[in-house]
């Protein structure tokens, strides 16, 4: 991208929802494709930020904490001070390259440390001092005034790898997806679910959560599962590192393309 274009997009991205610096340039709702990013810290991203993560990319925006569209430069999440590189920005860049006539709008709503039990109406998550589900719905509806929601990207489950939570995970995840679709008025909304990290030997509860996620996808024609094979972690052995999150964003993108292709095929039949 030229220096001039970069400057224009920096100006554009600092304006409020639906308004550009140049009044002749508008976000067209039909070509502003939105993606809701939800889950816990591995969706928010804890990768180390490098120069490439701060580059302004044309037609890739993010809804900031104040509900304004800004350039999607990492960290796009703001759940905790540790927020860093996530998978969402890479995903958005690849979508924008695939579809040159659209603008991508990322809606970051992940909350580090949030078990799935906090992703229900009214639930409060102490770590981030937020209401994960209620806040996500509020921000999604705000964004949908400007564009069209195309998919939900979900990465969560580490907070439910326990004797108490793991056996209930499939039921809770299925209900969460149904609730998102109902509350956002989109019964066929695609949902992409990422696999937990394979940084160390899994215990039986991680195996149980993994199976639950796979089973939810098997029963839902508008859902996809993204594997984490080969991805590596930060020294904490908990969070994907920056390189792996960029790769994960690519895998989510490929899953999104396949879902779109499958849906078009179903319509054609």
Spell out the key features of this protein:
7-stranded mixed beta sheet, Rossmann fold, disordered N terminus, alpha/beta, 14% strand, 269 residues
Architecture overview:
This protein has helices spanning 3-13, 41-44, 88-98, 132-143, 169-183, 204-218, 242-268; strands at residues 32-39, 60-63, 69-71, 103-108, 148-155, 191-194, 223-226. The radius of gyration is 18 Å and the shape is globular. A seven-stranded mixed β-sheet has the order 3-2-4-1-5-6-7, sandwiched between helices. β5 (148-155), α5 (169-183) and β6 form a beta-alpha-beta unit. 45% of the residues are buried. Helix content is 35%, strand content 14%. It has a single domain (27-268), classed as 3-Layer(aba) Sandwich (Rossmann fold). α3 crosses α7 and α5 (169-183) packs across α6. The chain has 269 residues and is α/β, with parallel strands linked by helices.
* Backbone shape: globular
- How many helices? The count is 7
Order of SSEs, N→C?
HEHEEHEHEHEHEH
By secondary-structure content and strand pairing, the structural class works out as alpha/beta
Proportion of residues in extended strands: 5-15%
The radius of gyration computed from the alpha-carbon positions, rounded to a whole number of angstroms, is 18 Å
Helix content: 25-40%
Per CATH, the superfamily is SGNH hydrolase
Main sheet attributes: strand count, strand direction, barrel closure: 7 strands, mixed
Task: Give the CATH class.
Answer: Alpha Beta
Strand arrangement in the largest pleated sheet: 3-2-4-1-5-6-7
What is the fold named in CATH at topology level?
Rossmann fold
């Amino acid at each position: 991208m030229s220096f001039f274009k970069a400057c224009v997009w920096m100006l554009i991205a600092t304006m409020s929802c639906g308004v550009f610096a140049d009044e002749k340039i508008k976000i067209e709702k039909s070509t502003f494709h939105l993606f809701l990013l939800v889950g816990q810290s591995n969706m928010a991203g804890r990768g180390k930020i490098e120069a490439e993560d701060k580059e302004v990319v044309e037609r890739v925006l993010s809804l900031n904490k104040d509900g304004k569209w800004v350039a999607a430069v990492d960290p796009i999440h703001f759940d905790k001070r540790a927020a860093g590189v996530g998978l969402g920005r890479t995903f958005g860049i690849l979508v924008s390259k695939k579809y040159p006539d659209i603008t991508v709008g990322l809606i970051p709503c992940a909350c580090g440390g949030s078990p799935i039990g906090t992703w229900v109406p009214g639930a409060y998550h102490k770590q981030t001092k937020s209401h994960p589900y209620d806040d996500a719905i509020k921000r999604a509806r705000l964004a949908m005034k400007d564009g069209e929601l195309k998919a939900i990207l979900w990465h969560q489950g580490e907070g439910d790898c326990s004797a108490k939570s793991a056996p209930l995970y499939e039921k809770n995840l299925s209900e969460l997806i149904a609730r998102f679709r109902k509350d956002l008025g989109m019964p066929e909304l695609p949902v992409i679910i990422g696999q937990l990290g394979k940084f160390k030997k899994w215990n039986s509860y991680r195996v149980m959560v993994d199976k639950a996620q796979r089973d939810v996808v098997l029963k839902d024609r508008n859902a996809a599962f993204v594997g984490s094979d080969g991805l590596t972690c930060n020294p904490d052995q908990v969070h994907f590192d920056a390189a792996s999150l960029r790769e994960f964003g690519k895998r989510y993108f490929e899953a999104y393309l396949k879902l779109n292709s499958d849906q078009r095929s179903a319509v054609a039949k």
